[in-house]
Design goal:
Elements (H helix, E strand, L loop, with lengths): L11 E5 L4 H12 L3 E6 L2 H7 L8 E5 L5 H15 L4 E4 L14 H29 L2 E5 L12 H21 L5 E7 L8 H4 L2 H8 L10 H11 L11 E4 L14
Parallel strand pairs: 1-2, 1-4, 2-3, 4-5, 5-6, 6-7
Helix pairs in contact: 1-8, 3-4, 4-5
Length: about 260
Amino acid sequence: MTKNKYDLENKVVLLTGGGSGIGREITQSFLENGAKVAVAGRHLKSLQETIQNYQDDQAVALVGDVSKPETSKNLVYEVQKKFGRIDIVVSDAAAYISGTIDQLSNDDWEKVRQTNIDAFFYLATATYSALKETQGTLIAISSVSGISGDWSQAIYNASKHAINGFVRSLALDWGKDNIRVNAVAPAFTLTRMTSDVATNKDQLALINSRVALGRPGTPEDIAPAVLFLATEDAKYITGTILTVDGGTSASTGQPNLN
């Protein structure tokens, strides 16, 4: 949970991809800071585990595939029916497939594009009116992979570059409505999705060698940045891609020879 308290009492949050990892930590951090959260994802059991320690009047699990256009519309309807409004939207649903272009299939591309790009578009479109009413905020969980390139990550990086482009342009378009749009961009983070690398000492050492702080990120490192962007303390911040990466993106990519 967050070290500091944030003024989020009774704010209503819609978060996608909250069944595990970073999304679960963000969900629980919002709840611990007094917000009401509707957490969405494809697997009810995982969502229920995320909110199991919270009351029904503070948290609700909503099942749906956000890569489908009708899902986000249904989510907005359900959240407004239960909580009456939407103040904060967090787009965290994501898919990751690695490999060079010649190794990947059309289905691989479709999965990454639909989950990472299409889902964000559908969510933004569906929540615009609700956020306009509350002068709320939309926060995407992007990646430092949306800032530069990586080996064997062409389609994933392309999807995260798209999200960063969406965020910057939506911030311009929605500024007139006092809706703020930002992204948080982690680097390698310890989650279930990255467990194969995290348990490989040689690979983890290579990753840590690129991090100024010398360790991988954790979901607990990411959540506070999201909460900050959702508060009045960030009321003049929009169109920003906030890197929360331990200094990974500060490097040119050259090795440390000292």
